[in-house]
Specification:
Layout: H1 3-27, H2 38-64, H3 67-72, H4 75-98, H5 102-113, H6 119-129, H7 139-190, H8 195-203, H9 221-235, H10 243-258, H11 261-274, H12 276-282, H13 290-300, H14 303-315, H15 326-353, H16 361-372, H17 378-386, H18 390-419
Helix pairs in contact: 1-6, 1-14, 1-18, 2-7, 2-11, 2-13, 2-14, 4-5, 4-7, 4-15, 5-7, 5-15, 6-7, 7-10, 7-16, 7-17, 11-12, 15-16, 15-18, 16-18, 17-18
Length: 420
């Protein structure tokens, strides 16, 4: 295929994402009567997470994944882990160089390390197979394999995001909340305010930016007190947390992620795909319970439209703030969409040369694209969860996803040319 043909094949999935996410953005405005309001988006997110995504994952795995496939895919967990490790190192370097506000530090590291391993691969990778003259073989086989690769990527990404990224954002958020609370304690008595002014200050209604500090939610007060007590105890040699306790905490978080609906669907999808007699129960024209597989596929078909609409509607919040410096945005975009994919390409090509990867070029394409994805949308969820950097997170996601529309097309075209 010529370069222009490859460009067309690579750009079609990205254009689909832009069109549908653009519609989602419009549906979140008053022009559509706020059809995708924040409360509705939360409910729809739950439906996608609890119903649509598990149905899509299970049906695709049970239909197309065998035991041999699972063994040959061993490098994908390693690859996903490397994207987080290398991205985290780059993000840490950016924090040291840029010296941003504390509440933005965690967002920078998370944006550089945590790519969108679920939503976008589920849209882009299978869509590559739907184009006429695609380089990855027969459409149906390619599409089934692409769904399996993207589903596995989503399950792995979710584990890393809700352990590594969650802890990164949580630690920075707790530090910021603690400093904010300490700043409030210092400023209130030192400003000579009367009781009414102090009350207004504590309520966050004072317009003086130099002294007005909003009291953190009560849920965090215990964390601050415990942290202060812990620091004092640690100074006395009494509060040193054991390695065993840290391991238990990490394993509990990992177990919680492994018990999420998409991860459970991945596990059972692997089982049904690997065990022939289980697969024959639900897959095939003569399967006695084929209605189960058909129903799950029908539910799973709603996943991609819903998550793409939600993607566009969530990005609209970034138009409301300019609280992130342009240099910070440029550095994140370069790190996430240029530097990391270049490193990933060398890693994947080296793994292929050593015989660590299956011969399927679509598998290698998926591995490299994992490095090229924009930041995970779950970062926004975590920022809302800890109520730190909501506006900044929306701005980062808006600009990185805007740049990703060009970067993903360019990387996809290049990879089709190199791998196909």
């Amino acid at each position: 295929m010529g370069f222009l043909d490859l460009l067309v094949v690579a750009s079609m999935p990205v254009i689909q994402v832009l069109l549908i996410s653009g519609l989602g953005a419009l549906m979140a405005t008053h022009y559509f009567d706020n059809l995708l309001s924040p409360n509705f988006r939360k409910s729809l997110n739950k439906v996608v997470f609890l119903v649509f995504t598990p149905a899509l994952v299970f049906s695709s795995f049970a239909k197309s994944v065998t035991l041999e496939d699972m063994i040959s895919w061993w490098f994908m967990p390693v690859n996903v882990g490397l994207t987080f490790l290398i991205g985290g190192i780059i993000g840490w370097i950016l924090v040291k160089l840029l010296k941003p506000n504390l509440k933005v530090e965690g967002l920078i590291i998370a944006a550089c390390s945590s790519g969108n391993m679920g939503n976008l691969p589920l849209v882009i990778v299978p869509a590559i197979c739907n184009e006429n003259g695609g380089p990855f073989g027969e459409k149906e086989v390619c599409h089934n394999n692409a769904l399996s690769y993207a589903s596995f990527s989503m399950a792995l990404g979710g584990i890393f995001i809700w352990t590594y990224t969650y802890r990164t954002i949580r630690s920075r958020a707790m530090k910021f909340k603690a400093l904010e609370a300490a700043d409030l304690i210092i400023k209130v008595p030192n400003n000579g305010l009367d009781s009414n002014a102090e009350t207004a200050l504590l309520k966050g209604n004072n317009n003086n930016d130099n002294v007005a500090v909003q009291v953190p939610p009560s849920d965090y007060v215990g964390d601050f007190e415990n942290q202060n007590i812990g620091d004092k105890d640690q100074a006395n040699g009494k509060g040193k947390e054991s390695i065993w306790h840290k391991m238990i905490e990490l394993l509990s978080e990992l177990l919680a992620e492994l018990m999420s609906p998409p991860a459970i669907a991945t596990f059972f999808g692997f089982i049904f795909g690997a065990v022939a007699w289980l697969r024959n129960l639900i897959v095939g024209d003569n399967a006695p319970f084929r209605v189960v597989q058909d129903s799950l596929q029908l539910l799973g078909n709603a996943t991609i439209p819903c998550i793409t609409l939600l993607l566009g509607s969530n990005l609209t919040q970034g138009f409301k703030s300019t609280s992130v410096k342009p240099l910070t945005l440029i550095c994140i975009i370069i790190a996430r969409l240029l530097l990391l994919p270049v490193i990933g390409l060398f890693i994947v090509k080296a793994a292929a040369n050593f015989g660590f990867l299956p011969l399927d070029p679509l598998f290698q394409y998926t591995l490299v694209m994992q490095y090229a994805m924009p930041p995970a949308m779950n970062i926004s969820t975590m920022a809302q969860l800890f109520d730190v950097g909501n506006e900044e997170c929306s701005v980062i996601l808006l600009w990185t996803y805007g740049a990703a529309s060009i970067a993903l097309t360019a990387w996809s075209t290049f990879l089709l040319w190199v791998l196909a």
